[in-house]
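Q: How would the C-alpha cells look for this protein?
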Amino acid sequence: MPFGSNDAGLIVSRYGVSKQYKESMVFVLKGKVYTKSTAALLICWHLSGFWPILSIFLLIPTPIRDFFYDIIARNRYRWFGKCESCVTE
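A: Here is the predicted structure in C-alpha cell form.
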C-alpha cells in the first residue's frame, strides 16, 4: 500500500516506521517491522511455489543484501517495465 495511504499511516504511527523507508518495502510480522531485503525475503518465505527457496538469502548479512535490494529497486522499471494497473483474474 502507498506510504501515504490511511492504512500505511496507521502502520507508521503504530510501529514507528521511519520516513526513510517511504520508498522501500515494509513488512510487519508478529509486531516486528522488517524493511528492504529482509521484508522481501520474509514475504517470499510465506508464499507458495518456489518462492520460499529465496529465503536462503537471509543467511547473507543485511548490509550486503540491502545493497543489491537498492540496485534492483532503482532499476526495476527499466529492467521489468511498469504496469499502469494491477492484473486481476
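The mean pLDDT is 81.

The longest strand covers residues 26-29.

Upvote if useful.
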